[in-house]
Amino acid sequence: MFETIIVVDDELIEAHELGSVVLGRVQGFYLASSLDGNSQTIALTVVLHGGEHEIEDTISFFGVYRTVSPESQIAVVSGTEKY
Fold first, then answer.
1. For the chain, which residues make up each domain, given as ranges?
2. Keyword Secreted: yes or no (predicted)?
């Protein structure tokens, strides 16, 4: 799994049910960044749709997600419009 890169461009939905409201998209990538596969470096941007408005809000995240740890430090590194 080391050196595996996953590219993401998925819908962000309100709930897990079919037909749930789409709030926006999650775009970016994460990669296996440790030999044992327990750490993933992530760089993601959440694009939130403005409903009837054409303007989109974004929040960008960067950090290392540790799969075996109950907590990981993921930083908000930027945002646009409301954020």
1. 5-80
2. yes
User: Could you tell me what percent of the chain has a pLDDT over 90?
Assistant: 40
8 has which bridge partners? 28
> Which helix (H) or strand (E) is 35 found in, with range?
none
CA distance 61 to 39: 16
Is pLDDT at 82 greater than 80 in this prediction? Answer: no
Contact 42, 63 (CB under 8 A): yes
Q: pTM of this prediction?
A: 0.77
R_g over Cα of the chain: 15
The distance of Cα 3 from the centroid of its chain, to the nearest Å, equals 19
**Measured distance CA(19)–CA(61) in Å, rounded:** 27
Whether 80 and 58 have beta carbons less than 8 Å apart is answered as: yes
